[in-house]
Write a structure and sequence with these properties.
5-stranded mixed beta sheet, DNA polymerase, domain 1, single chain, binds FE2/S2 (inorganic) cluster, alpha+beta, 2 domains, Ubiquitin-like (UB roll)
């Protein structure tokens, strides 16, 4: 039995048929909508590589059933840059060398944008690190990531 869901993805209304109601939002984005900027790391909610904004809030897309997102607005990394013009958080990540291999970077950036919108961490580096702790960087670029988030929210 297929299921039809409506999503707004990066400002574009999408109607998607789900053949399998168990498909995750992550797999829907990557495999059906070809938005591969959102990465799959652990696929079990532990690394944050799949972070997107769902109705403006940070979520792990690997933990969300696409069917449960019916009617929601999803924002992915692909929505940020306007041609060559980067989003301020993207620019801050470059300015602070906040990545090495880059695999976790889309998730880090989407998490940072969600954090800034939440306005919870302020200018305290410890609180920023805590608020970003759901996003793992195997290269250990945490100092640059924290500096980038602090600059971007200033
Ligand atoms: Fe979703 Fe790791 S892929 S948290």
């Amino acid at each position: 039995m297929s299921l039809s869901i409506a999503l707004n993805v990066n400002g574009v209304p999408r109607q998607v048929e789900l053949d399998d109601p168990r498909v995750t939002l992550l797999d829907l984005l990557r495999e059906r909508l070809h938005l591969t900027g959102t990465k799959k790391g652990c696929d079990r909610g532990q690394c944050g590589a799949c972070t997107v904004l769902l109705d403006g809030r940070r979520i792990n897309a690997c933990l969300a059933l696409a069917a449960s997102c019916d009617g929601a607005a999803v924002q992915t990394i692909e929505s940020l840059a306007d041609g060559p013009a980067l989003h301020p958080v993207q620019a801050a990540f470059i300015a602070h060398d906040a990545f090495q291999c880059g695999y976790c970077t889309p998730g880090q950036i989407m998490s940072a944008i969600g954090l800034i919108q939440e306005a919870q961490a302020g200018d305290d580096p410890e609180r920023v690190r805590e608020a970003m702790s759901g996003n793992i960087c195997r290269c250990g670029a945490y100092a640059g990531i924290t500096a980038a988030v602090l600059e971007a929210q200033a």
